[in-house]
Structures are given as structure tokens and as C-alpha cells.
Specification:
This protein is an alpha+beta fold and 208 residues long. The chain is 48% helix and 14% strand.
Length: 208
Amino acid sequence: MEVELLAYLPSRHLIETLEAEGLVVSEEELLKHVSFTFAISGISRACSHQLVRHRVASYSQQSQRYVRLTRLAEEAVEPGTVARDPEADMVFKGFLRAAEYAYNRLLGLGVPKEDARFVLPNATPTNIIVTMTGKALYHFFGLRCCNRAQAEIRELADRMLVLCRRVEPELFRRAGPYCFQKGYCEEGPLSCGRMEEVRAKYERLGYE
């Protein structure tokens, strides 16, 4: 997985522009107007499917319809829970090789890429460009930095948060999972039970 902050609207520039017009906005209002664009590569389709459920954003994703997939068995995203178990790893990689063979065989039979892709798994890597406002990012971090989020998208959210904190350290100081933002866990009986540990992590993340 690689994550790069391509561009952003600096809050200082926006604040100065508004003040020149005699306008003052709160931090909460400011978050609605600053935007951040990320280039994300090497995540799985399972991860991107979760990502695009955050609707207050703009996305440009690599096409499976027009771009031919190569080296699926080598480049697919393997969950840590699978990779750590030798038998699970063997099953996973065996399936990837079979899917790659089926995909290439269908293409060889003249099946269009847009239809051959039906045999590709959620582990298939993809690239995507994402633009979100600061407010949308706070919501994204609230849900996806949580310990109950799936591991890959949690890693993606952490990396995005670090990049945001590097360029806007004060604006994103309160960003992180909702237990960090709000001071309490919203998961009730489904809580990870490690709120203090999680909050300590997000006090430091990106500032060390």
C-alpha cells in the first residue's frame, strides 16, 4: 500500500482570505471548506469497496474494464490473518493462481476484459484518487481508525491521518477514531475494550 497527499487547500490561506473579506469562521466550519486529495495504490478491491461507501468524496479509480490485469498471484493483497497461517496461505495463493489462470484463459478465448474480470477476487489490487473535505475526513477517521474496522482500511486511514497531521497539525489534532474524538466509545458491548490505549496512540500518531 502506498498513500500520497497530492494536493490540499491550506487552512491558513483560507482563513486569511476570509479575514480580508471581514469574515471569521469556526474550526468546525473551516473543516467543511478545506480539501485534501490523495493518491492511493496497492490496496485491495475489498478495501476500495469500503472506501467508496464514504459518499461525501470524489473518486477516480483504476478501471478493470479497460486495464488488463497482470501478475494477480504476485500482487494481490493478502490479509495478515491469512498470511500468518501456512495452511490458509496455501489455500489463498492456490485460489489466486486459479483465478489468474481463468482470467487469462477467458481473455484468450476472446471474452472482453469487462466480462473476464468477473472471476477476479476482492484481493485484486487497485489504485484510486480520493478527494475529501476536512469534515468528511474526520468522519472517515472516526469510523475507519477504530479497532473494529477491518485491518487494511484501518491502515489506510492511519496513513491518511498522518499525512493530514503533517500539513495541518492543529486542524487534525482531534482527528482519529470516535473514542478519541468524543472521549467515549460508541460501540457499546462491541467495544474493543482498549479505549485508553487507542486514545494514547492517536495523541502521538503523526506527531513523533
